[in-house]
Structure formats: structure tokens, C-alpha cells
């Protein structure tokens, strides 16, 4: 959408979103995450470590076909171009861990088990070996954590990193790190994810938010590939035509890169955005969205460094299996 500098209804999403990730395309400004669990005007920024902020003129409502943006520069600045990626969860849940014996910390949030997505809110304990119900309906393959009240990294679990002691930071170019405390060195299960005593995932007495995803056949896929350092790069099979692909080099430093089918929307012209920095979009000819996956078409180290390991998350343009 193009910003107006004042309140504007953003329509055409096709549903009432529970997570809106919005970024100005034409100039430098922060990525914002706003979700229905934390509430409108409550923002966290994927390119910053800062705590949650309240911006009264940012996202002011979630609507049946999208959302309303105020006049803030990172949401709807006058004459600037923007892109948003939207996810629907929609089913509220809460878990009293002591009553259900599921997990050790209480949690609540919104979920779509059909889509393999849940937003989980919990209060950290600061203690080791804790677990939290996620209500995802299956085992999470990617979880993005952020402390709401204190500046911390966006600590990210991905199943293809090779273990629950491995992590990435969404706000950083850093390679995958090793730390047994973030996820209590315990892989998620179909009912809970685990957290240790680390502030990034379980800061004592402070609000935490976690975005949980799992692969759904024909709709979403979370996996890995290895770079070959050539313009004729790897083809990655997803089983659907992707609408959104996000990649990150894990074996050494490199930007996160995000591509979608809405901004330019044609192969050779797909433009990258870096979730870890505030820069405007830029750069083409690096990744093609195909009928059954995506192909790297550039030797860029961020996407295709020779012998380097990469993880990805991908979502379908039109789900093959379930129209919901």
C-alpha cells in the first residue's frame, strides 16, 4: 500500500489478521510486528533489540479484511510505499499448567492448527528447564521469541539448525550460535516448547511472546539447503508455489533475506528485504519463485555461499490441500 500520513484502512488481506508484519519499502524505517494477543498499537521491531513500544498512530485495529494504519512513518507515512505480511490464527487458548499438567509455565494466545501457526504469550520465570504449552496441534519447526519488557535479541529456534542447543537472532547477521540455556537443550514436542533461564526466552517475571510455526503440506515448509556459490544455484522443493520465502545463512554471518510475490512479483525482478535491518528494499535477480519451490539465481554469499548452510521458511501463494 501507499501511505497517506493519516488513518487508512488497509484491505485485500482476505481475512482478519492476528499477526501483521509491516515494512516501509521506499525508505529506511523499522520492521514492525503487531499481533492480536499483545494488542493494537503494541509494537516490537525485528531489526532492533528494544522492548515493546506503544505507538498510538501505528496499527490501530484488526479488521475483517485487513487492518487500519495510523500516520506513523513505519506504518503509513505519507507517499511512502509499504508491504505487509499477514497471518491468521484466530482461535484463542489458555493453559493453566498446574491444572492441566501440560508444561510448567502458564500460557495463552491465539492459534490455527490448520495453518500450523500460533502466537504464545507467557510470563518468564528466569528458571532453568521450563516448558510452555503452544497449542499448535503438532511439533513446532520454527519458533521466534522476544522479551516484551527488556531489550533482548529475537532468539529463533529452527529444526534444521541441528539441535535444541542451536539458535539464530532475527535481528542479527550472526551465524547460528550454540547455547544450551535458550531452549533448555530440549527439542519442542507436539504440546510444549522448552526454555531455560536465558533472558531472551524466559526472563524472570517479564512478558514473553513466541511465534510458533510448523510445516503444513501444500501450505508451508521449513527446511534447509546448501549453497554452491554459482549463479545457477540450488533448487529447493517445497511442494507448492511460494508467496513468501525467508532465508538465512547459518554457518557464517549474513543478512536474513525475504522475498515475496506482491512487490514486483516476477522472477528476475523479485526484490529482497532484510528483516534484520531497517534499510529500504533493494537488489533483484537473486531468487525465483517457482510452481513447486524456489531457486537461487545468484552467487550472493547471503543466499548461496559455496558450501554454506542455509535455513528457510516458505508459505504458499495458493494452498494445495486446504482452502482455509
Give the radius of gyration: 19 Å
Instruction: Tell me, briefly, the overall form.
Output: globular
Count of β-strands: 25
Residues in β-strands, percent: 35-45%
Described by strand count, sense and barrel closure, the largest sheet is: 8 strands, antiparallel
Give the H and E element order: EEEEEEEHEEHEEEEEEEEHEEEEEEEHE
Main sheet: strand order? 9-10-11-18-13-14-15-16
- The residue ranges in which pLDDT falls below 50 over 5 or more consecutive positions are none
- Overall helicity: under 10%
**Structural class based on helices, strands and sheet pairing:** mainly beta
> Whole-Å distance between the termini?
25 Å
Give the number of helices: 4
Whole-number mean pLDDT? 97
Short description:
With 324 residues, this protein is mainly beta. Helices cover 5% and strands 37% of the residues.
Question: What structural keywords apply?
Answer:
mainly beta; 324 residues
Secondary structure topology:
Blueprint: E1 8-11, E2 19-24, E3 32-35, E4 42-43, E5 53-54, E6 59-63, E7 66-69, H1 73-76, E8 82-87, E9 91-95, H2 97-100, E10 107-112, E11 117-123, E12 130-133, E13 142-147, E14 155-158, E15 166-169, E16 177-178, E17 192-195, H3 199-202, E18 207-213, E19 220-226, E20 235-237, E21 242-249, E22 257-260, E23 287-290, E24 293-296, H4 301-304, E25 309-316
Antiparallel strand pairs: 1-7, 2-3, 2-8, 4-5, 6-7, 9-10, 10-11, 11-18, 12-17, 13-14, 13-18, 14-15, 15-16, 19-25, 20-24, 21-22, 21-25, 23-24
